[in-house]
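Good morning,

Attaching, inline, the C-alpha cells for the sequence recovery test we're adding to the shared suite. The designed sequence is right after.
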C-alpha cells in the first residue's frame, strides 16, 4: 500500500465546503451520557482549525457507538437477547438512538474551538442538506451520527453520494475507522477529491515509515490474549523485524506447542501448529523470537488470587499464567535498550489486576527510557502507557487499535487506499 498520500496542505480549500470525517467515538458515562474522555475530539482540532483558518466551510461527521439504524433490526437484536418482539416499542428504539446522538460532541467541540458548531438533525436528510447549503467559509457544522443511516456500514453508494453532494472536497482524519469500508470512510471518495488530515498523515508517516524503512534494530513487542488475532501481524513482522517479543495470554499457546505444561492458562489449541510454524519461520529468517522464560501464575482468575513464579512450561494443573515473570521482564527490557525502533501492541499480562500488571508496567518503563523511536499501537497498550504516565515519553501513540493492527499486518486500509496519492 502506498503510504504517501496527499494532505490538506496539498489542496486549496479556500471558500470550499469540506466534508471532514473525524473519529468522535468518545467514551461516555453509561448513566449520564457525559463524555468521560475527550482525547479524540482534541486530536481532530489541528485539522479543523487549519481548514477554518484557510477559509473552508467544514462539514464534520463521525460515528458514535453502535446504534441500530432501523426499528426492524433493533427488534431482531432484542429478540436475540431473549426479549419478546411484542414488548419492544418504537419509543425504546428511538431512546437508544438518542443516547448515541452527537449533540454532546458538538457542545464539547464548540467549547474547544471557541466558536459555535452548528448541529444537523440528520446525516443526509433535509436538515443536514439545508444547513450544509447555508454554511459559510470559517463556519463548522456537525452531521448526526453517521451510523444512524443504514447505508453507512454497508458502504451504500447512494448514502456516500448524498454525503458527497453537500461538499466539494473530502478530508479523512479518522484513523480509528480507516480499516472499515463505510460510506463516510471510503465511499465518499468515489465522488470527491480525497486527502488526509494531519492525524492520518502522522499515523501514515510514523507507522508506515517504521514498516517500510525502520531505524534498526526493529523490535516488535506483541501481547494480548490470542494468537489468532495477532497471527497476521506476526507473519508480516517476521519479514521486517529483527526481534519479536511475545507476551500476554498468547504466549501459553507457544509454550504448549513446544511441549510445555500450561495448566489452566489461556490456550488456543487449534493454533499450536501455527505457533510452531512461526518459531520455525523466525529461525529460518534469522529473526530473534523471544518467549517468556518464567511466568507469574495464580490459582484463580481474580485480583487477589494466590500467586507464585514458575519456569515457563511448568504450570501445574489448577493454576494459570497471568503475567510474565521477573526473569522474562529482564530479558524483554534488555532487548529494547539498544533498539532503533520499537512497536508495541498488547499487554504482557492481566493488566487490569494490579498484582499481574508488573510485566506490562516494566515494558512501558523500559520504552520510556530507550532512545529508540517508540510506537504504541492503540488499544490496551496505549491505555497502559497513558495510565502509567509515560505517554509523553513515547514517539507516537496510535489513535486506532484495530486500524493499527491491520496496518501492521500489511493489509490494505480502505479509508487510506481511497485517498489521492502524492
Amino acid at each position: 500500500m502506498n503510504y504517501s498520500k496527499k494532505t490538506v496542505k496539498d489542496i486549496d480549500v479556500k471558500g470550499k465546503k469540506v466534508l471532514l470525517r473525524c473519529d468522535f467515538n468518545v467514551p461516555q458515562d453509561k448513566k449520564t451520557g457525559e463524555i468521560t474522555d475527550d482525547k479524540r475530539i482534541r486530536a481532530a482540532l489541528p485539522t479543523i482549525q487549519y481548514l477554518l483558518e484557510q477559509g473552508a466551510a467544514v462539514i464534520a461527521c463521525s460515528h458514535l457507538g453502535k446504534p441500530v439504524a432501523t426499528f426492524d433490526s433493533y427488534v431482531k437484536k432484542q429478540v436475540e437477547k431473549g426479549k419478546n418482539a411484542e414488548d419492544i416499542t418504537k419509543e425504546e428504539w428511538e431512546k437508544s438512538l438518542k443516547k448515541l446522538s452527537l449533540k454532546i460532541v458538538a457542545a464539547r467541540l464548540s467549547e474547544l474551538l471557541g466558536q459555535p458548531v452548528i448541529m444537523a438533525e440528520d446525516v443526509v436528510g433535509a436538515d443536514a442538506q439545508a444547513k450544509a447549503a447555508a454554511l459559510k467559509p470559517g463556519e463548522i457544522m456537525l452531521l448526526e451520527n453517521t451510523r444512524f443511516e443504514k447505508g453507512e456500514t454497508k458502504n451504500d453508494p447512494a448514502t456516500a453520494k448524498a454525503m458527497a453532494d453537500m461538499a466539494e472536497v473530502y478530508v479523512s482524519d479518522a484513523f480509528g475507522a480507516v480499516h472499515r469500508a463505510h460510506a463516510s470512510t471510503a465511499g465518499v471518495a468515489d465522488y470527491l477529491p480525497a486527502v488526509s488530515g494531519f492525524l492520518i498523515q502522522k499515523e501514515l508517516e510514523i507507522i508506515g515509515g517504521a514498516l517500510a524503512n525502520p531505524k534498526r534494530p526493529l523490535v516488535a513487542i506483541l501481547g494480548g490474549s490470542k494468537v489468532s488475532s495477532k497471527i497476521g501481524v506476526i507473519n508480516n513482522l517476521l519479514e521486517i523485524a529483527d526481534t519479536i517479543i511475545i507476551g500476554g495470554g498468547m504466549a501459553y499457546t507457544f509454550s504448549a506447542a513446544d511441549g510445555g505444561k500450561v495448566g489452566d492458562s489461556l490456550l488456543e489449541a487449534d493454533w499450536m501448529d501455527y505457533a510452531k510454524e512461526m518459531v520455525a519461520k523466525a529461525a529460518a529468517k534469522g529473526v530473534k523470537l523471544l518467549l517468556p522464560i518464567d511466568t507469574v501464575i495464580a490459582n484463580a482468575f481474580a485480583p487477589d488470587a494466590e500467586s507464585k513464579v514458575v519456569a515457563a512450561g511448568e504450570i501445574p494443573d489448577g493454576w494459570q499464567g497471568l503475567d510474565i515473570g521477573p526473569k522474562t521482564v529482564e530479558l524483554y527490557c534488555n532487548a529494547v535498550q539498544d533498539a532503533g525502533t520499537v512497536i508495541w501492541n498488547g499487554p504482557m499480562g492481566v493488566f487490569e489486576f494490579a498484582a499481574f500488571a508488573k510485566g506490562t508496567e516494566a515494558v512501558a518503563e523500559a520504552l520510556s527510557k530507550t532512545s529508540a523511536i517508540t510506537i504504541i499501537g492503540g488499544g490496551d497498550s496505549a491505555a497502559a502507557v497513558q495510565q502509567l504516565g509515560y505517554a509523553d515519553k513515547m514517539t507516537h501513540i496510535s489513535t486506532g487499535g484495530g486500524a493499527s493492527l491491520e496496518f501492521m499486518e500489511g493489509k490494505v486500509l480502505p479509508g487510506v487506499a481511497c485517498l489521492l496519492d502524492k
